[in-house]
Amino acid sequence: xxLRIEHLGIAVKDGNAALQxxxxxxxxxxxxxxxxxxxxxxxxxxxxGESKVELLAAGSPDSTIAKFIEKRGEGIHHVAFxxxxxxxxxxRLKEGGFQLLSDEPxxxxxxxxxxxxxxxxxxxxLVELCQQIK
Length: 134
Ligand code: ZN
Known about the structure:
Blueprint (H helix, E strand, L loop, with lengths): L1 E11 L2 H12 L5 E5 L4 E8 L2 E8 L5 H9 L2 E9 L2 H10 L10 E3 L3 E6 L9 E6 L2
Parallel strand pairs: 1-4, 5-8
Antiparallel strand pairs: 1-5, 2-3, 3-4, 6-7, 7-8
The protein binds zinc ion.
């Protein structure tokens, strides 16, 4: 079951400049910075009520974030829904005609198992499913 919007992912060109911008905007510092080597991305997280904002900066020029920014510019990159059982949801959505970008849940930032859905089948929105690793 989908439980809530866990976070919004925002693609940024310059991680340090964005850190300051969002600290001013949200009135609080990021609580975590984490490099996700498998995605070649550096993430910064802000807690906003029961949801989070995740800033995504490219860790290398061939990272998917660099390609995204090249194509579409900076801005909202994905919406992440928290689920109680990611394998169940992956199965449910696959059977519902959605396309998963991985067959197995991947290890994401912030201690999560994650899976992305292809935006072609989700109204152009890149959707991430995430489940807290206990
Ligand atoms: Zn995310």
